[in-house]
Amino acid sequence: QQEKEDLQGKLKLREHLSRTAGKSEATPAPSKNVDLEMKQLQWKLKNSNNEITKQSTTIKSLKNEVQEKEERIRELQAKISRFERDLNMKRHLIEDLRSRLKANQENEKTSNETLESLERKVKALAGDCSNKKTSIDSLKQRLNVATKEKSQYEQMYHKAKDELEKKDLKLTNLESKMIETECAMTELETTASQQLHGLAKQSGQALETVQKKLLLTNDKVEEFMTFVKALTRELQHSVQELRTKIKQAKKMGEVRACKKGLSQESVQLAASILNVSTTDLEEILEVEDDEETAKTKMEFEKDKEWLQYIQQLLEAQFPFASYLMDAILEKLNEKKKLVEEYSSLMKHTV
Prior knowledge:
Largest sheet: none
Helix content: over 70%
Radius of gyration: 64 Å
Low-confidence stretches: 25-29
Oligomer: single chain
Mean pLDDT: 80
Structural class: mainly alpha
Order of helices and strands: HHHHHH
């Protein structure tokens, strides 16, 4: 920028000198040198301007890089903060685990102490066992005393046995009554099973009747389907016949019009020129044009689509009666129109 300012100042000076030189009566040679210096200074100015633009672009790119690096630094700082948090968390976890380890070690110490105390108790129990052996010996002596008492108890047992026999008689009576009740229950079960068998037979008969009705309904549905298919085919066939009749009537009218326009002699002359009979000439005149063939193809395609639509309706789920009725009515209306057209053509031909 300083070089630019210096150059601009020099340029201004040179311009001022050139102006002053133009006013004064100087020689032409130094003015040429001034112009050359002016051009050199302008070229230097342009170079400096180009350098300034390059410098500014590089400064901008460096600024962008600095911004990107600052963003990268921020991201890295955020990551560092996250890592520090994770480290703190892990440190806390390690401290918790250390504290748990200490607690487990203390628990081990306590468990070892309890084991030692249990061993002491076992030793004490062994001493108790020796003491109990002595007590068993004393108990044997008491047993001898108890055998004596046993004889007394046997007498008491015999008495109790007599009482038990009496109670056994009562039990046998009760068992006989129980057997009677069980017999009654079995009879009830047999009657109930018989009734259930009867009900099962009735339900089976009812199922058979329902199955027969279902078969009949299926047969009726199939008959209805065949009837509808036959009706649609007949309708389509009759419509096609009417179309062919209308075409024939139209052709006949055209041929008659041609015959009226042409005399018999001209027809014979044309036949002789073409080397055909008059009937063959009439057939040639009756040849369909491309439009008629295209129309017949379209009508055939429409009839095919109509039959496919009815087939889809029959295969579709219920209800489909209204759609089927509309489709058949559409074909009947078409037939009616064709009949009217044919009758009008026949009147005109007559």
